[in-house]
Amino acid sequence: MIDTKLIAQLREKTGAGIVDVKAALEESGGDMAAAEESLRKKGILKAGKKSDRVAGEGIVYSYIHGNQKVGVMVELRCETDFVARTEGFTQLAHDIALHIAAMNPLYLDEAAVPQEVIDKEREIYKAEMAGSNKPEEIMGKIIEGKVAKFYTDVCLLKQQFIKDESMTIEEVIKHGIAKMGENIQLKRFVRFHLGQD
């Protein structure tokens, strides 16, 4: 029998339903960490299934950094006005805006990066390796690895979340989907820095 205090504690931490929390705790033999990990994995699977649903509601959230020199606006969408008005949804928008203020991503995702930017990066990486005597196949793999790293540096959804580096922003949104039970989409963002064009 699982202690109701454990169920309440894990439910508070994850936002999952009582039945799911109880099942995860029973599955893990009362191990909170294992149960939480199990819930996170299941939540991401559920989030994937919800990603096709229309997200026509939401908010435009603004954040101004304490020094008044950096500002961010984020358009975060969900399925219903009810979820858009919840504290959890606003907190998610705030966390994303805070991350953008700190990390200054240039693009939303890989699809938003212009092809000429990627071509230029590949040229730079190829020039760096000129004269290395590595086989062409190996050089190609190294270049693609560097391009993947470039995406994690400049694409918001691929960046590690500043509040929890074990997750990317994309995963943070998926956890929001699992917790709130609706499709959530980050549509666009803009970051202003005083004195920068």
TrEMBL record:
Hydrolase keyword on record: no
Translation elongation factor EFTs/EF1B dimerisation domain segment(s): 54-196
UniProt-annotated location(s): Cytoplasm
Sample GO molecular function, one term: translation elongation factor activity
Residues covered by region (Involved in Mg(2+) ion dislocation from EF-Tu): 80-83
Keyword flag Glycosyltransferase: no
Gene Ontology CC: one annotated term: cytoplasm
Entry keywords, A to Z: Cytoplasm, Elongation factor, Protein biosynthesis
Entry similarity comment: Belongs to the EF-Ts family.
Cited function: Associates with the EF-Tu.GDP complex and induces the exchange of GDP to GTP. It remains bound to the aminoacyl-tRNA.EF-Tu.GTP complex up to the GTP hydrolysis stage on the ribosome.
The protein's name in its UniProt record: Elongation factor Ts
Organism: Candidatus Magasanikbacteria bacterium RIFCSPHIGHO2_01_FULL_50_8
Taxonomic classification: Bacteria, Candidatus Magasanikiibacteriota
Gene name of the record: tsf
